[in-house]
Amino acid sequence: MKRFYKPGIVLFLYLTAQSLFAETGPWFPHNVSAEGERIDKLVIFSFWVTGFFFALVVIALIYFTFRYRERPGSKAYYTHGTGKIERIITFLLAMSVFGVIDMNVIHRSNEDFEFLMGKNLDRSKALRVEVQARQFEWRVRYSADNKTFGTAKDITSLNQLHLPVDRPIFVQLTSNDVVHSFYLPNFRVRQDVLPGLVNQVAFMGKEKGQYTLACSELCGLGHYRMKGYVTVEDEADFEKFLADAAKTTDTDPANNWGWAWEER
Amino acid sequence: MSEEHMHEGPKSFITKYIFSLDHKVIGRQFLFYGLSFLLLGGIMAYLIRWQLAFPWTPAPVFGKLFFPSSGGAATPEIYTTLITLHGTIMIFFAITPLVIGAFGNFLIPLQVGARDMAFPVLNMLSFWLMPIAGAFLLVAFFTEQSAAAGWTGYPPLSSATYNPGAGESCWALAVVLLGTSSIMGGINYVTTVLNLRAKGMGMFKLPLTIWGLFLTAILNLAFVPVIAVGLIMLLLDRTFTTHFFTGVAINTAQAGQPLLYQHIFWAFGHPEVYILILPVWGMVSDLLSTFSRKPAFGYKLTALSMCLITLLSAVVWGHHMFISGMSPAMGKTFQSLTMLISIPSSVFFFNWLATLWRGNLRFTTPMLYCMGVIFVFAIGGLTGILLASRTMDIYLHGTYFVVAHFHYTMAMSVFLGSFAAVYFWFPKIFGRMMDETLGKIHFWITFIAVNVVFLVMFRVGLAGLMRRVADPSAYEVFKPLQPLNQIITYGVMVLGTAQLIFIFNFFYSMFKGKKASENPWEATTLEWIVPSPPPHENFEGPLPVVQCGPHEYGNPLSAGKDFIMQTEKAG
After folding, report:
1. So what's the pLDDT on residue B8?
2. Which of A127, A129, B187, B239 is deepest in the core (most CB within 10 A)?
3. Is residue A31 part of a domain?
C-alpha cells in the first residue's frame, strides 16, 4: 500500500490542479445583463459553503487513512455508534449541513429568483418581442406599436435579436416544432421553448455589443448550429435596425405566425 | 425450495450454464452482460469526447470501426446517435445489469441465507429478456435513421414526424423490454428478502448491501412501470398516430402535451438515479466496515436514511424541469423538497466517515475503491445543491455542469463502487483472487483520470457550454474552452486505457489467480461461510441460523480473531 498512496495523492493533486486551473479565460462568461450577476454570486457563495463541508470530508479521509492504518498490534475501537451521544451528534451534523448550506441556498435562491424573473424591470418602458423557434433557427418579431402582434405592420428578423441598451425587454417564446431552449449565456437567461406553450423571459442589457443566442435543448441534427445573435445597442441604432428589418419583412399573411401578446 | 436437504445440480451444459435457474450462474451472466455493455458505452464516451475536443476529425482507433463510411469522423447523425446510446447503454444496459442484476442475483440469496431466489424461473426470464432488449438497442444503432432524440427521448423530437426511422422505435422498445426485466428482478428481490431470510435474520441484521438492493427493487417495482407507460404512449404516437404528446398546433391551440412526457419521464428518471446508487451505498457501507475492522457506525440510522431517501426520491422530479415552463410555485416546492434529501444523505455520509474513525484500516483494492466512492460522491452530492436551486438552475441547466454533476453522483460513484464490488466478491464468484498490485495501479490511474475528466467538466459548464452540442467551437463565446475540452478528452483516453489493466486482471485471475479460501477478507456475512465458489443451492447441510448482526468486527469478546461470523454468537 505504502508504495502507491503518497505518489498517488501527489499525482492526483498535481494533475487535477493543473487541468482545473488551466488558463483559458474567466470562469463565467462576461455578464451584460442587469440581474445576471446574482447567479454568479449565488454560485460562488454556494461553492464556499459546500467547499467548507467538502474540505472537512477530505481532511477526515486523509487524516484517518494515515492515523488509523493497520499496524502490527493495532486494534479498532469497538463501537456500533448507536448510543445516545452518537445519535445526537449525527442529528446535529445533518441539521447543520441543512441549516448552513441548504437553508441559505433556498433563501437566497427565492430572493434572487424574483429579480431574475424581472421584478425590478420597469414594465412601462419595456420592449416586447415574440420569438418563434424552429429547426434550426430563431424567428424574431417586433410589433409596430410595441403592443399588438400578428398584424401586417409587424417587423421580423431571422436569428437577430436587437435591443436598446438599458431598456427592459420581455420576450415571449414558443416553438413551431420540437422543444428548444432559448439561451443567452452572457445574460444568464435560459428558458425552454415548447410547442403549444408560450413562455416568457425578462431581462435588460446594460452593455453594448453582440452576444450569442444558442439553443440548449437537443432539437435535432442541426442543434449545434441553431445559433443566433443578440445585439445590445443605442436607441438610435435600434430604430435603424427596425427600419432596415421592415424592408425585408415577409408581409404574406400566411407566414404571419405572431400571436396576441398576453401581458404577464 | 426444500428447507433442509439439497437437490442435485443440473448436469447438461445448457441447463447448467445457459438456461440456468441457479442465481449464481444468472448473476455471472448479468456480470458479463453488464461489463460488455460498459465497454461499449465507454468506447462511445470516447468517440463523443473526441468529437468535442477535435470536431469533425477522424477519431483514432475506434472511429473507423464504428463509422467507416465517414472515414472515422463523426457527422451530426453519428454524434446524436452516440449521445443517445451512450446514455441509454450506460444507465440501462451497463449499470443496471452490473450492480442490480449481477450483484443482486449473486448476493441476495447468499447473504440472506437462502438456497436460491424465490422464483428461479422468473429470475432466468429476467436475464433472458436482456439480450433481446440489447438486440433491439443495437438495431437502433445500425438502422439507416438511428435513434437520435437523446436518452431522454423528449417528444416531439422523438415523434414519427421528426425522427421517422425505425431506430427511435427500437430504442423505446429496448428500454421497455429492459424495464420488464427489471420488474421481474424486482419482484424476485423483494420476495426473497422478505420471505426467504434464514432463521434469526431479522431485517436489521441484514447486511446494508441487501438493504440497498431491497430498496432499489422497491423503486424498480414502483417506477419502472411509469417509464414503460410513457414509452408505450410514445410508441403509440409513433406507430398508431395517437396524440398523447404530439400534434400540437403552431400557437396555443393544442392537442397533445409534450410537457406531460417530461413529467412522466422524470417521475421515473429521478428515482432511477437512486435505483442505480442505492446498492452501491449499501455495498460501500459494508465494505468500509469490513476493512476498518469495526462495526458499521450507526447501522440502523444508515438503513433508515436510505429508506427516507427512497421515499423522497419519488417527490423531487420537478427539479429536472425548472426551466421547462412549469409554474414558479411548483418550482419553489420542488426546490425545497429536493434540498431535504441532504439531511438523510449527510446522515449516512457521516456514518461512513465515523466507521473509518479509530478503525484498523486495511487498504485492500476494494477498500481503496470505497474511499474513492466517498470522495466522488461528496463532490457529486454537494454540487447537487447548486442544481437543486431553481435560480442557479436557470444558468446551469443543460450545461456541462449538470453533466459533470450527474456523472459524479450516479456514474462515477457507481463505476468505482462496482469495481469495489468486483474486486471484493470476485473470489466468491470465481473461486480465485484478483491480483492486488494490478488492482491498486488500476485504482490510482482510474481515480485520477476520473477526477481530471469531471472536475474540468465543471469548469466548462460554469463557462456556460451546453451539452449535446456537436461542435463547441462553432460558438465564439465557447471557443476559448477548447483547451479544457481537450484536457477532458485526454483524461478519457487515459481512463479507457487503464481499464485494460482491469480486463487483463479479471480474465487472468479467473483462470490463473491464487485459489481463494472460504473467507479471504475475514468478513462476517453468510456468503463467507460457504466454499468459494459456493456449491449448487449454496449451503451444504441445513440452512444457517443467524446469531448476530452483519458487522461484528473487533468485538473484544471474540477470542483469537477480530471478527465474529453471523452464524456465531457474539460474546
Report:
1. 67
2. A129
3. yes
Of A99, A116, A133, the residue at which a domain comes to its end is A116
> Is residue A166 packed enough to be buried (19+ CB in 10 Å), middle (13-18) or exposed (0-12)?
middle
Give the Cα separation of B197 and B546 in Å (integer): 9
- Provide, as residue numbers in chain A, all residues whose Cβ is less than 8 Å from the Cβ of B284: none
Instruction: Read off the pLDDT of residues B140-181 as tens digits, 9 standing for 90 and up.
Output: 888 878 888 999 999 999 999 899 889 999 999 999 999 999
Domain range enclosing A73: 2-116
**% of residues, chain A, pLDDT over 70:** 97
Residues 6 or more apart whose CB falls under 8 angstroms from that of B82 comprise: B44, B47, B48, B51, B74
Annotate B441-457 with b (16+ C-beta within 10 A) or e (fewer).
bbbbbbbbbbbbbbbbb
A215 and A108 in a common domain: no
Q: Residue B6: what pLDDT?
A: 59
Provide the domain count of chain A. 2
Asked if residue A134 and residue A103 are part of one domain, the reply reads: no
The closest of B300, B88, B132, B199 to B567, measured between CA atoms, is B199
List, for chain B, all residue ranges whose pLDDT scores fall below the cut of 50. Answer: 1-3, 249-253
Q: Could you write out the three-class secondary structure of B213-226?
A: HHHHHHHHHHHHHH
CA distance A139 to chain B (A): 13
Q: Can you read off the three cell numbers belonging to residue B209?
A: 448491501
Specify if B551 maps to a domain. Answer: no
pTM: 0.95
Q: What is the mean pLDDT of residues A62-91?
A: 91
Asked whether residue A89 falls in the same domain as residue A171, the answer is no
State residue B252's pLDDT score. 45
B20 assigned to some structural domain: yes
Of B259, B361, B448, the CB nearest to A15: B448
Question: Is B318 contained in some domain?
Answer: yes
Q: Give whole-number Cα distances, B16 to A107, B8, B84, B185, in Å.
A: 60, 11, 36, 20
Distance from CA of A92 to the nearest CA of B (A): 10
Secondary structure class of B550 (helix, strand, coil): coil
> Can you give the residue range of the structural domain that contains B328?
13-529
pLDDT at residue A264 greater than cutoff 60: yes
Q: Are residues A133 and A251 in the same domain?
A: yes
**E-state strands within B409-492:** none
Q: How far is CA B331 from CA B264, B327, B371, B380, in A?
A: 16, 6, 35, 22
Query: Which triple of cell numbers denotes residue B54?
Result: 477535435
Choose the final residue of a domain: A82, A116, A150.
A116
Confirm whether B4 is domain-assigned.
no
* A264: in domain: no
Q: Say whether A29 and B344 touch across the interface (CB within 8 A).
A: no
Among candidate residues B529, B516, B522, B525, the one with its CA nearest the CA of residue B554:
B522
pLDDT value at residue B144: 77
The domain that holds B501 is classified in CATH as 1.20.210.10
- A111 with A128, same domain: the answer is no
